[in-house]
Amino acid sequence: MSLSFLPNLLCILRILLVVPVASCILHERYPMVLLLFAAAAFTDGLDGFLAKGFNWTSDLGRVLDPLADKLLLVTVFVCLSIVGHAPWWLTGAVLLRDLVIFLGAVSFRAFIGRMHGRPTPQSKFNTFCQILFCLAAPAEAAYGWPAPWVLTALGALCLVTTCVSGLDYVLIYSRRAAVAVRGRRAAAGR
User: Fold this and answer.
1) Contact 101, 65 (CB under 8 A)
2) Rg value, the chain, Cα
3) Distance of CA 110 to the CA centre of its chain
4) CA nearest 163: which of 104, 117, 101, 94?
């Protein structure tokens, strides 16, 4: 029996954790938020390890994994802002980056063709910073740790990495689109 379905199952589990995480934030049950968010982060690492380590990748997994990550992080940011533990300007920046990337991907697909993208180092670092913030905010609310200035610094770091990562994607796919258009023009001119 093959266990190649496990990475996708872990992604689905992470998606299913979004609702309880959101509920716990909105009901200010922060120790449970930390536990559920840590479980979600663990499933993310485990599904990546299994998919890459055992070559259990799939087209479904390529969609589910980033979808699960984005659903969880965006939900946590929005809920933290609703209860006053994350500034709306930071949540807005996170949402705007993801919207720009999504609309850019849809436009690229519609006008240029299939995208062959992988997360950039800047994007991975941004996700890491967002996860740190999403863990630190409920920890500060529940236990008074880390100190408020650390949370502010993490928020600022998230803002910077969110902007840099978003701009990086825009530049990468703008260059790819320009190369593809030049290639089409050159081919049509023959």
Assistant:
1) no
2) 19
3) 23
4) 94
Closest CA to 98 of 75, 115, 64: 75
Cα 120 to chain centroid, rounded: 12
Domain boundaries, given as residue ranges, for the chain: 6-188
The one-letter amino acid at 16 = L
Q: Which of 23, 143, 122, 126 is nearest to 76 (CA)?
A: 23
Cα 127 from Cα 98, distance rounded (Å): 11
CB atoms within 10 A of CB 70: 15
Note whether 100 and 164 are within 8 A (CB): no
6-188, CATH topology level? Four Helix Bundle (Hemerythrin (Met), subunit A) (1.20.120)
What does the pLDDT profile of the chain (190 residues) look like in tens digits? 688 999 999 999 999 999 999 999 999 999 999 999 989 989 998 998 999 999 999 989 988 998 999 999 999 999 999 999 999 999 999 999 999 999 998 999 898 888 777 889 999 999 999 999 999 999 999 999 999 999 999 999 999 999 999 999 999 999 999 999 998 888 887 6
Q: Are 165 and 123 in contact (CB under 8 A)?
A: yes
The C-alpha angle 22, 154, 131, rounded to 5 degrees, equals: 40
Q: State the DSSP code for 145.
A: -
